Amino acid sequence: MPELNAALADRFNTRLAQILPSPIRVVDQKFSAIDGILKLTLGEPDFALPMHIKDAAKAAIDEDDSHYAAPHGHLALREAISDYLVERFDTPRYEPNGEVVVTVGASEALFATMNALFNAGDEIIIPTPTFPMYEAIANIIGLKVIGINTAPDFVLTPEKLQATLAEHPNVKAVLFNYPSNPTGVTYTGAQVQAIADILAEHQLLVLSDEIYAELVYDGEHVSMAKLLPEHTILVSGLSKSHAMTGYRVGYVAGPAALITHVGKMHQFLVTTVPGPMMAAANEALRHGRADAIEMRDIYKERRDLVMAGLAEAGFTAAQPGGAFYIFAKIPAHLNTDDMAFVYDLAETVKLGIAPGSIFGAGGEGYVRLSYAASTEDLQTAMVRLKHYVDLKA
Questions:
Q1: Which end of the chain is more exposed for a tag (fewer CB within 10 A), N or C?
Q2: Which portions of the chain are predicted below pLDDT 70?
């Protein structure tokens, strides 16, 4: 095993070195060492991919789709994305040539977009609790993150946004994620409109991560791209809606003047997305919309199951309007140090859930449970949680 020359020991990106690995993955990996543990830590759908989508990928392989695709993705998929957004969420029709880029998942979409559109020192608002990747990318680029603690209801209100903008007049953009990871909170059309009005008034860019848009249970998802298209970069993908996390297909849509730069960064990062994966995504968007609805209905049943189990165990949580997460408050009579709580829970009853504090300000004293697991596993998880609470009584 080669040892690094001592003179080269400081040859690394110092910003990256200051950022810890994904805290969700770190916790999940530690739990994995516990024999027999049941984990509700990751947002990993348990559904098998529908056969017609698999067949589309297989057909592309058989047809020798093994060469470089167009940098922005297969035109057929970009057309499907444009049609899907209009037909499903009533957005403007994005021009497939110039206003849509297919990416390696929503994660690459976020990284490419933030690198393409922001400069070191730019200020960006990120409401918390939030998905840790957002701030990690911002820190790698050298952005100044302005947090807005949305606890205890986990809603970004116009009042909170206006107050923050008054304190930080140089803010360039807002990163808005809904339905939310980790809280499951989403917004009505009126609530999104109120936020959009403020963003327009202040001439701000909005990076709208709507990866969970298909998973809205009570009402309809209203896209920021519908209400404020001239300010919005829309990020989404098929990982959550169609249980295609391993296929790694996401996309970015927005005004051509900005998407040009996003596409350039995307090309430097990954060149293009694999062809067979894009063929599968095209099939999902053209002929698999009912698949997403079927999964959504099952997730809703699972949400209700877990909410009932949490209530029985003495936990409180805001009713999630979307995604597949519940952000629950640890009862006061238990150890409300959420990190200590989840490790003791894992060791005592072999149940793994995520500590709320890893999602930023407002998450302390909470835990996140993912109900993207089988109904049987969720039932077992609630039994184990109640047993833990009874042991600590």
A1: N
A2: 20
